[in-house]
């Protein structure tokens, strides 16, 4: 049996009725308790509700730019209720508006704003730009910054025009139009190329011969690391030495030989690595050690 009309977690009961159509000798009812535990326990989100101003004697739409979304039910803006609204657009002062919404699982969200009725008028609206990757729909700003004639500012919810997929299917930028408080507002969307993963790392340097590097103690060499493919995302190279008693390397790829021995210099980008063998020799090996001369 499947219940399709139970949206709230809690304890319920159901009743079966049964009768024998053959001889009518048996009939009865069975009552059975059942516990319902909804998996959807995430409350919806109301956006676009900010403290704001309204010019005296001018109409004010308290739903302008306000939106409600739910992780399961999607857009539920049409379910928003206004349980409290004290706004009087004909009288200077500060008023309260309360918003309420509930999803199908009866998860609830409340929000509220203060609206100050003023003699000031709305001068301008500015929205911030956003960035996305090729093939990914942009997340447009939820608000625009409003400047009023008395110098005060507020944040206002925005209703944006839909963005067709062809706009963000290639790198570049485009502008999206929207409205807020009855005025037009725009945002610029920057579309970046997708991050192409790094396949391999290679170490290069003028002093590398046949894949190996030889240095005398106290000598230095500068190495460079490259990644493939060439259009992979900007790599962050991390340099290291397997045996730090033999040599050191800084994060610019400069190797310094410390004492004779053999080790490896390693370059890492993401989870890809490359290494080069390093042999450190004693400096001036043809010079004999100092001797003490007795007179």
Entry keywords:
single chain; 295 residues; mainly beta; Immunoglobulin-like; 5-stranded mixed beta sheet; elongated
Count of individual helical segments: 0
Radius of gyration: 35 Å
Level-1 CATH class name of the largest domain: Mainly Beta
Computed structural class: mainly beta
CATH topology of the largest domain, anyone? Immunoglobulin-like
Helix content: under 10%
- Beginning-to-end CA distance, first to last residue: 112 Å
Helix and strand string, N-terminal first? EEEEEEEEEEEEEEEEEEEEEEEEEE
**Count of beta strands:** 26
Q: In CATH terms, what is the architecture of the largest domain?
A: Sandwich
Count structural domains.
3
Residue-averaged pLDDT, rounded?
88
Q: Strand count, sense and closure of the main sheet?
A: 5 strands, mixed
Instruction: Give the overall silhouette.
Output: elongated
Beta-strand content bin: over 45%
Low-confidence stretches: none
Which sequence of strands runs across the widest sheet? 18-19-26-25-22
């Amino acid at each position: 049996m499947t219940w399709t009309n139970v949206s709230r977690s809690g304890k319920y009961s159901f009743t079966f009725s049964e009768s024998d159509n053959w001889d009518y000798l048996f009939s009865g009812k069975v009552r059975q308790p059942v516990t319902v535990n909804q998996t959807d326990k995430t409350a919806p989100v109301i956006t676009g509700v900010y403290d704001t101003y309204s010019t005296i004697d001018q109409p004010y739409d308290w739903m302008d730019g306000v939106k409600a979304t739910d992780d399961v039910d999607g857009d539920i803006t049409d379910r928003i209720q206004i349980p409290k609204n004290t706004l009087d657009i004909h009288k200077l002062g500060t008023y309260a508006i309360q918003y309420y919404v509930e999803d199908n699982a009866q998860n609830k969200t409340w929000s509220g704003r203060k609206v100050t009725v003023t003699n000031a008028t709305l001068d301008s609206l500015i929205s911030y730009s956003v960035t996305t990757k090729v093939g990914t729909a942009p997340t447009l700003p939820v608000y625009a910054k409003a400047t009023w004639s008395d110098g005060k500012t507020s944040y206002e919810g925005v209703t944006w025009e839909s963005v067709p997929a062809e706009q963000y299917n290639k790198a570049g930028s485009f502008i999206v139009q929207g409205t807020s408080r009855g005025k037009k507002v725009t945002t610029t969307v920057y579309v970046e190329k997708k991050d192409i993963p790094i396949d391999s790392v290679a170490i290069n340097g003028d002093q590398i011969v046949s894949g190996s590097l030889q240095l005398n103690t106290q000598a230095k060499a500068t190495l460079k690391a490259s990644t493939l493919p060439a259009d992979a995302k900007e790599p962050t190279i991390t340099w290291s030495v397997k045996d730090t008693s033999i040599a050191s390397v800084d994060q610019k790829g400069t190797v310094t030989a410390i004492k004779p021995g053999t080790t490896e210099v390693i370059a890492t980008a993401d989870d890809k690595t490359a290494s080069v063998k390093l042999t450190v020799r004693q400096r001036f090996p043809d010079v004999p050690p100092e001797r003490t001369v007795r007179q």
